[in-house]
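Appendix B. One record, verbatim.
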Amino acid sequence: SDHMENIYGYLMKYTNLVTGWQYRFFVLNNDAGLLEYFVNEQSRHLKPRGTLQLAGAVISPSDEDSHTFTVNAASGEQYKLRATDAKERQHWVSRLQICTQHHTEAIGKNNPPLKSRSFSLASQGSASSPGVQRRPSQNAVSFFNVGHHRLPTGKRVPIMQPDHLVDVREMMSQAEGQQRDLIRSIECLPASGNITSLDQDLLMLKATSMATMNCLNDCFHILQLQHASQQKGSLPAAAAISWFEPKISLANHFKNGAAQNFPAEINKPASVREEQSIAEPCQLTREPEEINPDEELEDICDDKEDDLGAVEEQRSVILHLLSQLKLGMDLTRVVLPTFILEKRSLLEMYADFMSHPDLFIAITNGTTPEERMIRFVEYYLTSFHEGRKGAIAKKPYNPIIGETFHCSWRVPKSDGATDAGTQSSAHPPLEPVTLPKDTEDQTELDCYTVKFVAEQVSHHPPVSGFYAECVERKMCVNAHVWTKSKFLGMSIGVTMIGEGLLSLLEHGEEYTFSLPCAYARSILTVPWVELGGKVNINCAKTGYSASINFHTKPFYGGKLHRVTGEVKQNLTNTVVCRVQGEWNSVLEFTYSNGETKNVDLTKLSVTRKRVRPLDKQGPFESRRLWQHVTESLRAGDIDKATEHKRALEERQRNEERLRAETETLWCTKYFLKEGDGWVYHKPLWKTVSAVQPQQTDTN
């Protein structure tokens, strides 16, 4: 109560783009749970210029600077405010958060438990029911059309058999479907009228139904553990525990055994049942699969994310999600709503960073160590622009463990062997390469082939491994990335932990590199992507290194997406190249001889990747695995996309739980753990080094 005093004072309030920031006199009314503001202190006795209800609001310090913070009301209205210094901001934020918490909790305390009230699903309504008072012709059951399902009353047995667990799972699935329908019905109610989506009784009903389903799932898991302990000693080593989770073909993805035929869930779409029970044993092997590039076709998908779509309509859902988060909170285990997803997996996003394969294979064309380092830096900086799909920041699918993605690119040898143009003999410009229109018809002999494979090797922490190689040019790149995301107020930060290694076998050089952090800014308005942080590239053999800084935009002035860097020879500490510009626009390279070169990234040609058709992909390849989610998002059916996404995530959780209970380690398919990193099982440096000694002996 000592912290519940009313406070007042001047703050700067952001009004609009025209008038910008203006001083206003703010008053925190703790008793009423209101934040009010006036033109100045002298007008305090007049009607406030603006008022925000703090119950259910989100108070967030901004990551833009140490003075700014935002107040997001449950109604969707937002105040962007700035204090004179960090101490004053902390004072206001603390008092506002205390007031908000007090009035939010008061809503629940002032309403008696649902079971003691007449408005419930169990009752058919009465004259005193709030639902009946507002709409006498309807009660809660008829309004939401919620049916009741009773478990079959059969003969009790001392130990529940596996088929009985199947029945329980079936009934729980029906209950989960009914609960989702209930939530959807409540959220579809109008914002005003007799019954609204913000009605306190309905909010309590939503929370209670969700808690009930969580409790039932916990109880079902206890039953699974009980039977696991009873049956563990009697199962053969290779047996499939099919009754743990009837929706999942555990033997395939979890134990690499034979497929089991599980009962179909007739109340779910066929596509959802396929996601929850993949029955294709011939393709579900953990043995590495050699992908034939001739089976791959040029990709025709072009899912640009330039439309806010459902994000604009679901702002209240985002506000509710933000209210559950704390600053600095790790978002790895937070399930984000489906409507903020872009239509590709994170593994495919890594492949899209390779969309300029002609520049990639041209690295090894450099005649000196200096030129090769500069070429690698140039290629590195051109990769991020195409890796982003459109201007709107959306999140790629979180890959499930064991998920893979394969693709390749074909580069005509006439373009890969020579440079597109020459501005100077030492530093040819990165001009767009015009590929022949009949590239698709060219044979593999006419083109260099760059092959790519990615695999999700770990779930917690989420680690991806990816590898690309061009055998003809004797070069390959291997990388592993752990994405760690944090909530930063009005933005989300993603740290890319890991390391990449580029090997130029023809020159015996290895280049280590890291990746910048990524930020999703303005998540309540129009979200956009920003890169930030320092990246280092090193070649121990030649002594050349590069330091690249991705600059985040300062609050006042400055440009977006700015990047600066330099390449130097470590032994002499001589800078041989400097770069500046924007990583998604124009880059300017300045060399030690005084020459400069501009690269317009928007005009660089993009080589489309080649991907196998869906019917030839394995069930754990990204596009086939997520195809129903992607199709639903393209059709704008968020509910169906959410259902498919939830089925995949539920399967992954159950498989992970069973591996923990049976103490079974996960076996990766293409990548092997080496120290703190992950390495492709058959990297080019192993196969080439095995051949080279034989060639040397014959000379």
